[in-house]
Structure to design on (454 residues):
């Protein structure tokens, strides 16, 4: 077998530039059915258990125990055409992403549960999927030596606290534990490609690079309600959320035709993020609520300067990235009917919104394993909450028969749909010339959430 320097030379020519950048570069915004239906303009509302993710300070608005569980199904189409007329098509490994991204959150208002010694303290725990998608291309396509498939099943475990000082002001803080688990996909980052030749390996060999690791981070937030109605409900909210940078050391292997030829190490620095949000309720009384919100996220992708791969023999495969800080701007709305005459035991909400997100990746380091293009998102959805006297799906009683009952006091169901449009992007001067060409991408997302209030 030839020296690993041969492998380094091949990679330096750009054959493996995209190998680690797919999953870590892709920020996955939807984290609940209520948030997704408003195109994630939810940080200043944050009035269900998914506040653990969107704004921990919002947990102080919740009573008793609350639970939210969400599953999302994602479909995508990626079309490529280069100057010579060669085309390629990519998707997410099938019509739907499997396993689908999912989240769950559980919150408790300690004062409501009789633990008055802690004051107005709320606690929560959640599992979110802030970076989670997969991509598949043909193993005979024009950039088969760059990527044939890539996946990242990362999760974020979030123990969280929030404290309410008064009706106007709350703060929240929590840990972010980014990690992988074997029960989600293969429990590791994976990148597969067809070997182009060189480095002692035959052309056409199937190559896999993988890795896993964990990284700690933290989130702090605040929720300020300068205006309240007569029932002491907010009619204006201002929110701020800060998510810290987190450094993840990935350890894995390089496999050729299924056999391990080297162990690898790489370092990924997840970006710090700033969110500022404002929500207004032009209507909020005992029959109707109408909210309008804008969220602005600033994602500091400059943390991803390189994704160099260190080989077990001491060699280094250089992979410069040099991404840039970009904004994501979301606007969302919710119109809710409270116990309407025709559904007196229900609340019914209609939601919608839109988001604009910029690409953080330059032409030189663009990766076809991720639709890293400027994008526009339109979202819509409905939510229904069933209370005492109603029946969920016409069968399950929604309220407790007595205080000692195990039944929830209310059950909610949220359904949302998102359509993402990506601006066509022509890549020129990429580190891998086979990546140069025009990309057109579309993505569809459906989310289903169940909420339980005890």
């Amino acid at each position: 077998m030839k020296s690993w320097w041969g492998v380094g030379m091949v990679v330096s020519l750009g054959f493996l530039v995209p190998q680690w950048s797919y999953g870590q570069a892709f920020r996955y915004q939807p984290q609940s059915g209520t948030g997704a239906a408003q195109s994630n303009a939810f940080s200043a509302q944050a009035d269900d258990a998914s506040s653990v993710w969107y704004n921990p300070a919002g947990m102080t608005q919740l009573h008793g125990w609350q639970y939210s569980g969400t599953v999302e199904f994602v479909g995508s189409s990626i079309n490529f055409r280069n100057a010579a007329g060669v085309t390629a098509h990519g998707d997410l490994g099938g019509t739907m992403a499997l396993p689908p991204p999912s989240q769950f959150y559980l919150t408790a208002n300690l004062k409501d549960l009789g633990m008055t010694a802690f004051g107005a303290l709320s606690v929560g725990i959640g599992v979110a999927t802030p970076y989670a998608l997969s991509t598949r291309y043909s193993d005979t396509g024009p950039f088969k030596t760059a990527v044939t498939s890539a996946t990242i099943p990362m999760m974020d475990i979030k123990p969280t606290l929030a404290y309410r000082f008064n009706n106007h002001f709350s703060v929240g803080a929590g840990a972010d534990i980014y990690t992988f688990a074997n029960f989600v996909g293969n429990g590791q980052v994976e990148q597969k490609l067809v070997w182009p030749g060189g480095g002692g390996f035959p052309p056409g060999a199937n190559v896999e690079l993988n890795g896993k690791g964990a990284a700690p981070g933290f989130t702090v937030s605040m929720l300020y309600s300068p205006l309240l109605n007569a029932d002491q409900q907010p009619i204006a909210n201002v929110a701020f959320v800060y998510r810290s940078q987190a450094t993840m050391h990935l350890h894995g292997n390089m496999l050729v035709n299924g056999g391990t030829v080297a162990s690898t190490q790489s370092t990924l620095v997840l970006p710090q993020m700033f969110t500022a949000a404002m929500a207004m309720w032009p209507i909020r009384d005992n029959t109707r609520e109408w909210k309008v919100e804008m969220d602005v996220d600033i994602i500091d992708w400059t943390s991803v300067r390189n994704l160099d791969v260190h080989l077990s023999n001491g060699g280094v495969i250089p992979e410069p990235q040099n991404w840039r800080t970009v904004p994501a701007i979301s606007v969302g709305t919710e119109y809710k009917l409270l116990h309407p005459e025709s559904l007196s035991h229900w609340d019914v909400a209609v939601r919608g919104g839109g988001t604009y997100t910029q690409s953080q990746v330059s032409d030189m380091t663009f990766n076809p394993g991720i639709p890293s293009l400027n994008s526009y998102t339109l979202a819509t959805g409905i939510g229904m909450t069933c209370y005492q006297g109603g029946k969920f799906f016409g069968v399950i009683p929604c309220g407790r028969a007595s205080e000692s009952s195990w039944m929830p006091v209310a059950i909610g169901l949220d359904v949302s749909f998102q359509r993402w449009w990506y601006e066509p992007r022509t890549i020129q001067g990429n580190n891998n010339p086979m990546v140069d060409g025009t990309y057109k991408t579309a993505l569809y997302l459906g989310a289903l959430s169940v909420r339980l209030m005890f």
In short: Helices lie at 4-12, 21-25, 33-37, 51-54. Residues 4-12 form the longest helix (9 residues).
